[in-house]
Amino acid sequence: APLWLVASAAQCGVRSSYADPASLGPDRWAALIAARHLVGTACVVVNAGTTMTVDALDGEGTFLGGCIVPGAPLMRAALARDTANLAQRDGAFAYFPDNTGDAIWSGAVNALAGAVRQMASYLEQT
Question: Is 27 a catalytic residue?
Answer without folding.
Answer: yes
